[in-house]
Design a protein that fits this description.
151 residues, alpha+beta, Aminopeptidase, seven-stranded mixed β-sheet, 32% strand, globular
């Protein structure tokens, strides 16, 4: 059974390992990646959160909600370990992100992605994210920006 838990320093290394693995499937790890991946506690200290999907107490997935402003979060660093994809962990992580954003009076969640990530795009579309003009150079690989306006 998969469960979603909030940040705990004991999972910091897994946050780095899982994200490094998916990024390096197609790209290289950028300085902006390392800044977030090596310091997940800073994301939390700055008003965001890092969630982990666990199965049998083993981290199989993760996502970060990085506070961008008082009413905006960036959804970033979402990944599920390859062997566990298709079991609903990404949906559970997304549900937790939406709940967190609403609890923190967020009016918008945005993300930067790449149009080659078809499965990720399908997830974002399913949750109502809409493509908007890309106005970020945070990631070299990022060629798509999407946002979700919350009620």
């Amino acid at each position: 059974m998969i469960e979603i838990v909030w940040f705990n320093k004991k999972y910091s290394e897994q946050f780095f390992i899982l994200n490094k693995a998916w990024i390096e499937e197609s790209w290289h790890l950028e300085d902006s990646d390392k800044k977030d991946l090596l310091n997940p506690d800073k994301i939390v200290e700055n008003g965001g959160q890092v969630f982990f999907a666990l199965e049998n107490k083993i981290v199989i997935g993760t996502v970060a909600m990085i506070k961008s402003s008082d009413d905006r979060f960036e959804l970033a660093k979402m990944t599920v370990q390859e062997d566990f994809r298709g079991k609903g962990a990404a949906n559970m992580l997304m549900d937790e992100c939406l709940k967190f954003a609403k609890q923190n009076n967020s009016r918008e969640i945005f993300l930067i992605s790449n149009d080659s990530l078809i499965i990720a795009r399908n997830l974002y579309d399913k949750y109502g994210f809409k493509e908007v003009k890309l106005d970020s150079q945070k990631y070299d690989r990022g060629n798509v920006k999407m946002k979700l306006t919350l009620d």
